[in-house]
Design brief:
Largest sheet: 5 strands, antiparallel
Shape: globular
Distance between the termini: 51 Å
Strand order of the largest sheet: 2-3-1-10-9
Order of helices and strands: HEEHEEEEEEEE
Number of helices: 2
């Protein structure tokens, strides 16, 4: 009987050690990889020239977006086309990349969270890269439903316009 009790106690000890090990692994979880929101970058091109030169993949932009773009004087063009978009998670403490012209890495946006703003926005370090060179750095506060419009560089006979939008913000715990 005492041998059975000893085996039972050893079994319980192993079970307790295994549970403690699982708890320790949970504590070691990297909180920096926790998602605090989602960003979407949409790449447009505005041009007064021939849109046929932009290629077949350049999609016509909806009326609502054209009206929004034309409200800004420097973004008034005869024609707008959508070149691509990308959506990525915003991690608490890690840099991430948006590639709106997939699979090309000709135009990239890097971003890193700087935390929430007092008015439920998300503060970011944001960089625009063209041909692997940083061409712009900014630290905007983005709010859901209010895209940041960036007048980009000249490109292929037109001017790039990048819309960066916070599409989701994780609620506070």
């Amino acid at each position: 009987m005492s041998q059975a009790l000893g085996i039972f106690m050893i079994f319980c000890l192993h079970l307790a050690l295994a549970a403690g090990s699982a708890d320790a692994q949970g504590v070691a979880k990297d909180e920096g990889k926790e998602s605090v929101g989602r960003l979407k970058a949409t790449l447009y091109i505005g041009t007064d020239g021939d849109v046929a030169k932009l290629g077949e993949k350049a999609a016509v932009v909806d009326e609502e977006t054209m009206v929004r773009l034309r409200r800004i004087g420097q973004m008034r063009f005869k024609h707008y086309r959508k070149l691509g978009e990308d959506t990525q998670s915003v991690f608490r403490s890690y840099e991430n990349w948006l590639t709106p012209l997939k699979p090309s890495e000709e135009i990239l946006l890097s971003f890193e969270s700087r935390g929430r703003s007092y008015d439920e926005g998300l503060r970011l370090d944001l960089e625009l890269w063209q041909h692997r060179r940083k061409v712009m750095k900014s630290d905007p506060v983005l709010h859901k439903g209010r895209p940041l419009l960036i007048l980009g560089p000249k490109w292929r006979g037109g001017t790039l316009i990048i819309a960066v939008e916070l599409i989701q913000i994780t609620t506070k715990k």
